[in-house]
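G6PDH family F420-dependent oxidoreductase
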Amino acid sequence: MRIGYKLFAEGYAPGEMVRQALRAEEAGFDFVEISDHFHPWLHNHGHSGFAWSILAAIAARTERVELATGVTCPFLRYHPAIIAQAAATTALLSDDRFTLGIGSGERLSEHVVGLGWPAVHHRHEMLRESLHIIRLLWSGGYHSFDGDHLALEDARVFDLPHTPPRIAVAAGGPEAARIAADHGDALFATEPRPELVRSYAEAGGAGPAYAEVPLAWAADEASALRSARQMFRFGVTGWKVMSELPNPVNFEAATAFVTEDDIAGTFGYGPDAERHLAVARNFARAGFDHLALVNAGPDPDGFLDFFTHELAEPLRELSTG
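C-alpha cells:
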C-alpha cells in the first residue's frame, strides 16, 4: 500500500502548500497530490493558487516524494496540448516523480473561460480526445488532430522526459472507469466503491488505483468535526452537485444544512487512530492501493506528526480486496 498526502490548495496559500509538501516528504509519505482548480469550493477557503506553479516549487525543493495532480481537467480551462507540455516539464523538474491525474472537471473552475459546461457524455468524449492528444504529443515530433470536439495543429512538445508520466484517470462511474482502462495508466476516485475498481479491471485496466481518504485530525473529536464541516462540507453533496454548481456562493447555499453528524458518517476524525484506519480500510477493501489522505482538521503539522507516529505503519500493512 502506498500512502499520499492531499495538498488542499483551496484552503491554504501557495507558499504554505509548498511547506506542507516538504513536511509530507519528511513525514514519510510516498506521494503528494494537489487539486487543480480556479475557484475554491467555499468562501471561507480563501485560496486557489495555480497548481502547476506550486508543483514546480515542490519539485525543486524535494528529493524523494512523488507528485500528482488530483485532478486536472484538460479540455476547457486548458487545452490538452498545454497540459501535455506542463506535465512533461513537471516530470523533468521532478526527475520523473510526477503522475498526471486527469478528469472531466467541475463547472466550478471550468466555466470561467466562457466556453459553457457540456453535458457529461460530451465531457467524456472530450476527455478521450484530450488523452489521445496528450499521448500524441508525448510520442515526440509534430502532430495534428481533428476530433469532434478538439483540434491540434502542427504542435510539438520539445522537452520530453525519457519515460512519459503515468496518467491516472478520475472515475465516478463505469464509463469513466472504462476511459481510465482504455487511455490511462491508473484509476483515480474519491469514494470507496468497489464497482469502480471492478469496472476498471473488467475493461482491461491493470494499473494502480488511487483514492482520497477523508480524515480530520485534532486533539479532540469536537474540534475535528467542527473543522471538517467548515472545510469539507461540500464533499458530502455528491458528485452530481459537485460537478454542476458554478461558484462558491452556490456551494455555500447547497451545504448550509450539512451537519457535523453528516460529516461524522464519512470521515475519520479526532485523536483515535483506529477511527482513521477504519475509513482507510474501506478504501483498501474496495481495491484501492494508493491512498491519498485528506486532512480536514485544523492543524496540518499535528496531522503529519500523527501520521508518522500512529498511522504510517498500519496503513502500509493494509491489503486490497
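The chain has one domain: 2-316.
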